[in-house]
Specification:
The chain is α/β, with parallel strands linked by helices. 44% of the residues lie in helices and 19% in strands. It has seven helices and six strands; from the N terminus they run αβααβααββββαα.
Amino acid sequence: MDLVPLWAEEFLDREREAIAISSYENQVLPGLLQTEAYAWAVFRSRVPVYDEDTIARLAAARIERQGILQGKEPPITCFVVWEPVVHAPFGGRQVWTEQLRHLRACSELPGLMLQVLPLDRASHASLDGPFVLLETPDHQRLAYTENQRGSQLIADPDEVGILTQKCAMLRSQALTPEDTRDLLDRLLGEQ
């Protein structure tokens, strides 16, 4: 069984070569920041369900993707995550605590910015849901969105421009990277 649909393969190819990645997530942590146990918990939550072998292959592929963050020339990355996501104990308390430690460590990587969008914001720029922005080595800008039944890679400059504006607004509405690290430290201290 081919686990990666054709439309996702193109996104993953572009992600591997990207020089910049920006992401907003409001349901789960971005795949590039997930621990293996957290990825397992996410894939186990899927309906219709995956069997254990499929989950193992998907989780392994997700962890392999993260190699781009540790490469010789990693992309500049910015992740904005809605606050309830960092509070949600996917996989149970132990998985969640391990995931928080991993997020804290990732927040120290060079060129990686992690920001939490606070729950108490009266409004924010992306009520329409999550998205990813990519910039390729030839400076093409792309966007990727997912929904309940699929996803799409967007190359139209006008559509990418709208999501780029949303991303800029989200970053200004979110906690700073330093304040985000403080939040993670507080959550870890409560363990």
